[in-house]
């Protein structure tokens, strides 16, 4: 199957792209890397009248460190994130997650902004944004908006972006010296869609979690920043405390059934990742003993 007929416009500037979106509204779709948009069009899941190609807008590409903030342009490709020393130094969780995004051919073309705007609930990067406390920068005819990651993702393939707005950049707090991270996903094969995954960022003081952000993906209609993490902060993490947090997580989950897994399986795997992740963050292998291999 191929996409239905559409008009095409290559944006010559950010202002030009915003003018096109303001004129055509929800009849237009933005093309950045095209790794999510084109398959959806070919399957006739979406049929836009106009494609606005922003791929040549150099102003939306690049990685910069500004004080304690890491700024990533929306058109920065996955492969550039993977190769960046600034990402490795200031957002190692993101560097680790990128290795799991699809396959090299996809990473060579796909962009971070495209991935976030697509908002696939099984995607690695939206969950990373929750765990890292990201701010999503969007721009429209009315000016710029700054949206915290937790409020940006609103449903399956849905975000807080309006049809007249464009995601232009992402800001991440630079990792502190006492930060630790964990990333793992269960998938049939490396590069396949995740069955369940966890992106976690924490700070550890004197053997306790001073802060903990657990970003689960493929467990509902959007990435989940687990409230259950609060049960493990500033306490001695024992098997009993971990079991209580696991039960609290179970109550937050709303997994879907598909050809890959049942809701019961996804709930089980999410709790396995919670146990395994906390054990790794604390350097306590005893806490993860017996978790599913």
In short:
This protein has eleven helices and 14 strands.
Q: Provide the β-strand percentage band.
A: 25-35%
Over the alpha carbons, how many angstroms does the gyration radius reach? 19 Å
Number-wise, the strands total: 14
> What best-fitting shape do the alpha-carbon axes yield?
globular
Mean pLDDT: 94
Strand order of the largest sheet: 4-5-10-6-7
Q: Report helical residue fraction.
A: 25-40%
**Structural class, from helix and strand content?**
alpha+beta
Please outline the major beta sheet.
5 strands, antiparallel
- Would you list the SSEs in sequence order as H and E? EHEHEEEHHHHHHEEHEEEEEEEHH
Task: Report the end-to-end length measured between terminal Cα atoms.
Answer: 40 Å
Unreliable sequence segments? none
| Helix count, DSSP H or I runs of 4 or more residues | 11
Question: Could you name the key traits of this structure?
Answer:
alpha+beta, four-stranded antiparallel beta sheet, globular, 293 residues, five-stranded antiparallel beta sheet, 11 helices, single chain
Protein architecture, described:
The protein has 293 residues and is α+β, with helices and mostly antiparallel strands. The protein is 32% helix and 26% strand. It is built from eleven helices and 14 strands. The protein has helices at residues 14-24, 37-42, 78-83, 85-90, 92-98, 104-107, 112-118, 124-132, 149-152, 239-252, 263-282; strands at 7-10, 28-31, 50-53, 63-66, 69-73, 135-140, 143-148, 153-155, 158-159, 166-173, 179-186, 196-205, 208-217, 224-225. Helix 5 (92-98) packs antiparallel against helix 8 (124-132) and helix 10 packs antiparallel against helix 11. It is globular, with a radius of gyration of 19 Å. The N and C termini lie far apart (40 Å). The mean pLDDT is 94.
């Amino acid at each position: 199957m191929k996409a239905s007929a559409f008009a095409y416009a290559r944006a010559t500037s950010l202002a030009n792209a915003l003018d096109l979106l303001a004129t055509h509204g929800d009849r237009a779709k933005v093309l950045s890397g095209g790794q999510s948009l084109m398959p959806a069009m070919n399957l006739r899941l979406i049929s836009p009248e106009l494609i606005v190609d922003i791929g040549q807008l150099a102003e939306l590409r690049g990685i910069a460190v500004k004080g304690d903030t890491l700024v990533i342009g929306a058109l920065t490709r996955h492969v550039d994130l993977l190769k960046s020393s600034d990402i490795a130094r200031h957002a190692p969780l993101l560097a680790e997650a990128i290795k799991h995004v699809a396959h090299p051919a996809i990473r060579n073309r796909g962009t971070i902004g495209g991935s976030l705007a697509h908002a696939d609930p099984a995607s690695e990067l939206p969950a990373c944004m929750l765990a890292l406390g990201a701010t999503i920068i969007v721009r429209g005819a009315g000016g710029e908006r700054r949206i915290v990651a937790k409020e940006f993702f609103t449903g399956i393939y849905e975000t807080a972006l309006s049809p007249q707005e464009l995601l232009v950049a992402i800001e991440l707090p630079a990792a502190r010296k006492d930060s630790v991270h964990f990333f793992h996903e269960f998938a049939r094969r490396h590069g396949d869609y995740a069955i369940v995954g966890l992106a976690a960022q924490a700070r550890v003081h004197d053997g306790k979690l001073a802060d903990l952000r657990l970003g689960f993906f493929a467990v509902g209609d959007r990435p989940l920043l687990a409230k259950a993490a609060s049960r493990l902060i500033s306490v001695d993490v024992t098997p009993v405390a971990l079991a209580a947090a696991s039960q609290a997580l179970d109550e937050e989950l709303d997994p879907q059934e598909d050809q890959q897994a049942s809701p019961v399986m996804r709930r089980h795997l999410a709790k396995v990742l919670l146990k395994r992740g906390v054990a790794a963050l604390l350097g306590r292998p005893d806490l993860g003993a017996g978790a599913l291999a």
